[in-house]
Amino acid sequence: MKNTRVTLNSIMNSIASLAVATALILSLASAAAAAEAWKTTFEDVCSKVDASQALSIKELETLIERADKLLPEIQKSEDPAKKIYLKRLKSCRNIFEFTIDSKKSSGK
Which residue of 18, 27, 42, 95 sits 20 to 30 Å from the alpha carbon of 104, by its own alpha carbon? Predict the structure, then answer.
């Protein structure tokens, strides 16, 4: 009976350790996925720069809003290239603003 308890305790300890390790791995994976999520949004927003003249003012305003929401996410990132992403995002946003101003002044 004593051997059974020792074995059962060992199994329970192993299961608990495995559960803790699994939870840690999942939380790290989730944090890594969240850290990369802003890059997808960044690519989606800035990919529209080349077609900005063909977009409506409403679409351009939406892109500016998305860029504004994305800015703090990039700022808190640990990515070593975040300064580059910030500069590119600001450039994309400036192009969208310029395009809006251009469309409004030309009456489109």
Answer: 42
